[in-house]
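Let's practice the habit of predicting before peeking. Look at the sequence and jot down your guess about where helices and strands might fall. Then scroll down.
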Amino acid sequence: MNRRLFIQQASLFTLTLGSAKILSACTSSSSSDAANIKEINFGVLSTESQVNQKPIWEPFAAAMSKEIGIPIKPFYVTQYAAVIEAMRFGKVQVAWLGGKSYIQAVQMANAEAFAQVISGDGTKGYYSHLIVNKDNLIAAEAKAEGGDKYVIKNAGKLTFAFNEPNSTSGFLVPSYYIFAKNNIDPKKVFKRLIFAGSHEACALAVANKKVDIATVSNEGLGRLEKTNPEARKKIEIIWQSPMIPSDPIAYRQDLPADLKKKFQNFFYNYKDEKILEPFKISGFAPADDKIWNTIRELEIAKKIEETKSQGDLSEQDKKQKLAQLNQQLNQIKKN
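Done guessing? Here is the structure:
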């Protein structure tokens, strides 16, 4: 989704505080503002189609509404960036974000993380995968050789699907570990490269033999096992990333303080296994912004590797750009 389309969408947003569609005029310490808020929009990431999201999200939103004391409405989008733009313009006040989209939401949409997802196995992390159709002739060779090595060696013969540019596991992590570290520009090496738009779309593109290889998160595959088990049976994992910090839950910083506290209490204490099971998680833990510094470091490290191999820069310009990036990286590590 391009910038012009974001602005066009934003201009359609209802910006009326009385109806509680935005909170940009609220102060973080005023409880009187909270009393005027009649509804909260909760941003839902585009990991799957809306038809698959609704049965999962509506019971969770209902439980949240009961605890918070006002209606909480899931705000479904088709692109990660749409959540950021909606949060920026006050259409969304709270959201379940990915690491990369959260970093952008901090910069653009006044976002503040307060909780972190705990996976079903109790960890606070998840993985990026490369996947292939089990019936594809390349499957056995790719798995035996190592998916990342196979992709690098055979890219010119392969069709490849990323999730979308604002996805942590569907773009940033594989972009760094597979391509940037090996001085490869994925836009130049594949027979065909697409951005499928969601984890579900990537998985189905492989299951339906529309592409040879795609990126997906282990969580996305877990959900596919529930929503489309026949498609999941066709998929083989050929690469797994290092662990990625699990998803943040974030609200706008200008949300009234008493509402912030209510959201914290709900997420820190919510344990309904029946409702959480479709998410493949066991609950949520208190969190702050620093947890996702790993994602910030990955972003900069990717830029460093890309700059090193950038042929259109003079040595002086390259040296200067690398110095700036390394300074940014060192600053993050100090925090």
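How did you do? Residues 1-32 have pLDDT under 50 and may be disordered.
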